[in-house]
Structure formats: structure tokens, C-alpha cells
Amino acid sequence: MRINTHWISGRTGRSVLLAAGLVAAGAALGLAPRSFADEVRAVPAPAVDETPNGATSETAVLAGGCFWGVQGVYQHVQGVTSAVSGYAGGDKSTANYDEVSEGTTGHAESVKITFDPRRISYGKILQIYFSAVHNPTELNRQGPDSGTQYRSAVFPTSDEQARVAKAYKSQLGAAHVFDAALVTKIEPGKSFYPAEAHHQDFLARNPTYPYIAVNDIPKVEALKRMYPDVYRADPVLVAAAPNTN
């Protein structure tokens, strides 16, 4: 397999090499390599959700491991009008891939999701996040990626979102939906900064890339299987939007 040397540095290079090895080993044994998506579980809908206020557009910012997969999942959700990969949790001056990959900036690889609250609620966005997007019991890691930049985090964009996120985290914890405690951080008041253009739409553009095939395509399949009422076959792409801000 030809590997783009742009990625052979930091987390992504190691992840791609590991994913390539898993693909090769699985093929040799006639088995598909396991990923988080093989162990997804259904979670109950939030008991507390936002109160409709007539708004036609809202944004949510979520972090759950490599932003390629998080973006890829939400691009297939009906009611989502945009999903942009980027960084949240740190300063604007360090919001770039090379520095964030060092794990010392306070940033997490994140996705800003713009959605129509008349078609899908913030609570539903969170339900998908806690079930099909990532494992919220993994501390500072997801799959082959480790470091605080891959932490599980919700960045509320309003007091109402913070209220819903805190209530839902408590609800899932009290219900013992997972075998371990949820480590998801709720971090209000943080700005989001779009990632570099080559990170946008990465899953849609590279569905057979080993890292994507092992770690992220199964998440889109989980979305389709678990939430057929909100799944859309054609993703909403950043490339089709006027800009990524």
C-alpha cells in the first residue's frame, strides 16, 4: 500500500500504519479487523432536551477521537446542514494540526455541526454521539489514537446546550449503560477553529484509506443501522459549502 508521507508524523502516521497492518492481518485470516464500531451499543434518548424556540439553525461542537470519523458520521445525519473538522479547547494561535498533534495545546480534534433544530434536536445529536460516534468511557484515547487531543468532550455553544449535555451525561451514568464510567468532559465557553482544507471531507473522499476503513466506515454503518430515521445516504460536504467558517 502506498502511504502519503504527509501523514507519517505524530498520531496519524502511526495510526495509518497500524490500520494497514490490521487490514493485512485480517485479510490473511479471512477476518475483518475489530474496531469500536463492532461494539457500539444503543443508548436511551435524552430525558432532557432543548426547548424549541423557533430557531432554524444551531451549532454543536463535539470531540470524540480523530475528527475524520466524527465529521463523516454527522455528514450522513438528516437535519445537519454542515459538519466541519477543526479544533476546540485551546487558543487560536495553536489551532493547527502540527501543534495540536503534540497534545500540549489544550485543543481536541473536534467537529462543528450546524443543524436545523426543527428537523433534529440537540439531544438527538448527543444520542448519536454517545452511541455511534465514539466510546465515552475511554480517557484521552479512541481506537489507536491517544492523547488529550483525542479526548471525549462536548463544547456547548449555549447555556441550554450545557444544561442538556450535563443532564444526559448524568442520565447515562445513572442507567449504567456502559461498563465503565463516562469520562466525557463538558467544556463551555471554548472557541472552534476550522482545520486545514485537506482534513475536510476526508472520510467521504477516502473511504478505502486503511485508517478510515478500519475505524470510521463502520461508524457510518452503525448510524445507518441504529438510526435509520435520521440517516441520509448522500453526505453533506464542506466542499459544497461557500466556506468552512
Task: Briefly summarize what is shown.
With 245 residues, the protein is of the alpha+beta class. The protein is 33% helix and 15% strand.
Describe the structure.
This protein is about 35% helix and about 15% strand. With about 240 residues, the chain is α+β, with helices and mostly antiparallel strands. It has one domain (about 5-240): Peptide methionine sulphoxide reductase MsrA (Peptide Methionine Sulfoxide Reductase, Chain A, 2-Layer Sandwich). Strands 7-6-1-3-2-8 form a six-stranded mixed sheet. It has a two-stranded antiparallel ribbon with strand order 4-5. α2 (about 65-75) crosses α4. It is globular, with a radius of gyration of 17 Å.
CATH architecture: 2-Layer Sandwich
The name of the CATH superfamily reads: Peptide methionine sulphoxide reductase MsrA
> Mean pLDDT score, rounded?
88
In the CATH hierarchy, what is the class? Alpha Beta
Structural class: alpha+beta
Total number of β-strand segments?
A: 8
Specify Rg, calculated over alpha carbons: 17 Å
Distance, first to last CA: 35 Å
Number of domains: 1
- Could you tell me the strand content as a percent range? 15-25%
- Can you tell me the CATH topology? Peptide Methionine Sulfoxide Reductase, Chain A
- Taking pLDDT < 50 over at least 5 consecutive residues as the criterion, the unreliable ranges are 1-33
Main pleated sheet: 6 strands, mixed
- Give the helix level as a range of percent: 25-40%
Enumerate how many helices there are, as a single number.
Answer: 8
Strand order of the largest sheet: 7-6-1-3-2-8
InterPro entries: Met_Sox_Rdtase_MsrA_dom, Met_Sox_Rdtase_MsrA_sf
Active site: 66
Function: Has an important function as a repair enzyme for proteins that have been inactivated by oxidation. Catalyzes the reversible oxidation-reduction of methionine sulfoxide in proteins to methionine.
GO molecular function: peptide-methionine (S)-S-oxide reductase activity
